UniProtKB/TrEMBL annotation:
Domain annotation DUF8040: ranges: 58-146
InterPro entries, alphabetized: DUF8040 (IPR058353), HARBI1-like (IPR045249), HARBI1_dom (IPR027806)
Entry's localization field: Nucleus
Domain DDE Tnp4: 181-344
Pfam families the UniProt entry points to: DDE_Tnp_4, DUF8040
Keywords: Hydrolase, Metal-binding, Nuclease, Nucleus, Signal
Cofactor section: a divalent metal cation
Protein name: DDE Tnp4 domain-containing protein
Gene Ontology MF terms in the entry: hydrolase activity; metal ion binding; nuclease activity
Signal peptide boundaries: 1-21
Entry's family note: Belongs to the HARBI1 family.
Main location: nucleus
């Protein structure tokens, strides 16, 4: 029954029961009072409730207001980088505040999982959220960060990298080198019917990831999801044959360095086959390079080592890549892309001030500068007028003769 129907019913009732005009006026006043009271009650009950905006959870609030080391330990980045990342994801509409969880908390949930390889139940206790909420925001942030990979993974610059220009042992011999390509084996979790294909040479279940990086430790291309049993060279050929992969091809005269699992082709230079290559093979006074081929392989390995340094920093920051997380395989694949994108974002925003990049720069110099007679002998071996392309051409001629 509507309010108007109630009012009409009361009016008819009182009009029939009243015997005089004075009684009718009194009853009418009472009826108006009842109706007014009902109207007030009805308006209060049905008025839309104002929802208070979500607030940051106590745990994250204390973390962001606490020591820098605590923030680095949980979020794997400094505070200002974390805030910048949250602002970008919110500003681009990739994430939005929910009625109970801010974007900052959503990002923190994701980072605490990939930065410590923790189970959802552990993170649930920390943030005081349900397992469903933690799982939902983990997947939402993963999708959002992955969508930024095209922005964070950029082609290499055309100029000679300063890491080469500023090193006499590398310049001008490698002045046209723009990056390094290599494969990375990452532990994978798979159902029994797919395990045989993903076993690598050591019998471990892995996904093979093809990656390219520059000499400032930034990734420029990442292609995860291949079976651990597949050779690196086959993955590279598949990438080059598929224009949808948007691989940053080397311009004419430029090239990437690849290890001896690959072959020399235009735009890709491998070390001399059948010669010493690994750095430990050159340690000791009696094992110094004896000819131009030895020296070229030694320098090639020194430069290519930048990929291992990049992988090391990536896996140290995001230990989830060191194990086989029990997620669907497409999630494991996306985690590789997302963590590489975050790796680049941190490098660009914080540079050498980030504690992991700073430690990597201190622990491993690209190459040690020689001095005196040793430098003169090396220059004679490598020939000042030779370039890596000419040396590789000479190597290929030697193979066919």
């Amino acid at each position: 029954m509507t309010l108007w129907n109630c009012f009409c019913y009361l009016w008819l009732y009182f009009s029939d029961s009243c015997t005089s005009s004075d009684d009718f006026d009194i009853e009418l006043d009472e009826m108006e009072l009842v109706a007014t009271g009902y109207l007030f009650y009805y308006s209060r009950v049905n008025r839309p409730q104002r929802k208070s905006p979500p607030t940051i959870c106590t745990y994250l609030k204390d973390l962001l207001e606490g020591p820098v080391e605590d923030c680095r330990d949980l979020l794997r980045m400094d505070k200002h980088v974390f805030h910048k990342l949250s602002e970008i994801l919110r500003g681009k509409g990739l994430l939005r505040d929910t009625p109970s969880v801010l974007v900052e908390e959503q990002v923190a949930i994701f980072l605490s999982i990939v930065g410590h390889n923790q189970r959802i139940r552990v993170v649930q206790e920390r943030f005081q959220r349900s397992c469903e909420t933690i799982s939902r925001h983990f997947n939402t942030v993963l999708k959002a960060v992955k969508s930024l990979s095209c922005e964070f993974l950029q082609p290499p610059p055309l100029e000679t990298p300063p890491e080469i220009v500023n090193t006499k042992r590398l310049y001008p011999y490698f002045k046209d080198c723009i990056g390094v390509i290599d494969g990375l084996q990452i532990p994978a979790h798979l159902p029994a019917n797919n395990q045989s294909r993903f076993q690598n040479k050591k019998g471990i279940l892995t996904q093979n990831v093809l990656a390219a990086c520059t000499f400032d430790l930034q990734f420029i291309f990442v292609y995860p999801g291949w079976e651990g049993s597949v050779e690196d060279s086959r993955i590279l050929r598949a990438v080059l044959d598929d224009p949808n992969q948007n691989f940053p091809q080397a311009l004419k005269g430029k090239y990437y360095l690849v290890d001896r699992d690959y072959t020399n082709t235009e735009g890709f230079i491998a070390p001399y086959p059948g010669k010493r290559y690994c750095l430990h093979e050159f340690r000791g006074a009696s094992k110094m390079p004896k000819n131009a081929h030895d020296l070229f392989n030694h320098r090639h390995n020194c430069l290519s080592n930048i990929m291992q340094r990049s992988f090391s920093i990536l896996k140290t920051r995001f230990p989830i890549l060191k194990s086989a997380p029990q997620y669907p395989f497409h999630v494991q694949r996306d985690l590789v892309i997302a963590t590489c994108a975050l790796h680049n974002f941190i490098k660009r925003e914080d540079g050498i001030h980030d504690w992991l990049f700073a430690t990597g720069a201190e622990d491993a110099a690209l190459v040690e500068e020689p001095c005196g007679k040793e430098e003169e002998e090396e220059l004679q071996l490598l020939h000042l007028d030779s370039t890596p392309v000419e040396l590789v051409a000479d190597s290929l001629c030697g193979m066919t003769s």
